[in-house]
């Protein structure tokens, strides 16, 4: 006859075996369910190009334009948050505004085999055209483009901002038409002869190109709206100050100053104060960050126009995740922009 203690041990051992079998079976069932639920699908990139998704999680390389200002940092945060939501990994590559460095980064990302997706914010979208629309899909790397279009499409509108060979384009609030409408409204609000100076970003940057094209359009319609200087920067507060100080000193009769990004506007406002021009000319900003909202409230600038960098990169990453699961995504994801002055500043919140 078996002792009670022996029976308890045997029963306990048997229960353990049964529990182990249940756990093992459950894990196997879960794995089989995941395997059956995962159906590789072809992702249409246009022009007869496709990428086949697989059951691997997304490994995203974010080719950001740089990391040295709050706009870009907000975009990085948006991309990181979206990557967490879709269960993807995301690595950020910083070229510090160099098209050459960024092109080399793109080459390394594609050839490494470590990544199956890219979010591209390219400093020279024309230089990067072939590598992202042809080489990337051939290597099985899915590309979403945001903020800065590829393939000489910077001045296009709507779906024409999208480059075949990539998934989509997210942005448009800094396109030629967007900048033209904005600067046209400034010219219309200031009739008669005006002496204008403009601050933009680096050469080859799509937003710089679109600002210059918009200025040309506006001056053709309003010949009294005379642009006397266009100054290029790296979008930083420091260069915004350093490059406008001599400009303001040499042009004390400026009536309008336009900046297409808020960080450099901040530096320019400091320079205007230094030479006593801050209340003698009107200052119009594009960017809509925390500083510029406060500057509108304090009367340091006349208005700012909002940008949505967090949303821009968040939506780019989310689109990658949707496409990877076989969901259809739009070719163009537009972003809204709002003009902020003393009358409207209380109605909106800055995104960065």
UniProtKB/TrEMBL annotation:
Pfam families in alphabetical order: Peripla_BP_4 (PF13407)
* Highest taxon in the source lineage: Bacteria
Signal peptide (UniProt feature, chain positions)? 1-33
List, alphabetically, the InterPro entries matched.
Peripla_BP_I, SBP_2_dom
Q: Which residues form the Periplasmic binding protein domain?
A: 60-328
Signal found in the keyword field: yes
Can you list the GO cellular component terms from the UniProt entry? cell envelope
Q: Where in the cell is it found?
A: Cell envelope
Q: What is its main location?
A: other
Q: Which keywords does UniProt give here?
A: Signal
One term of GO molecular function:
carbohydrate binding
Show the PANTHER family listed in the entry: D-ALLOSE-BINDING PERIPLASMIC PROTEIN-RELATED
The UniProt entry's sequence similarity note says: Belongs to the bacterial solute-binding protein 2 family.
Kindly provide the name given to this protein in its UniProt entry.
Sugar ABC transporter substrate-binding protein
Could you read off the lineage of the organism from its UniProt record?
Answer: Bacteria, Pseudomonadati, Pseudomonadota, Alphaproteobacteria, Hyphomicrobiales
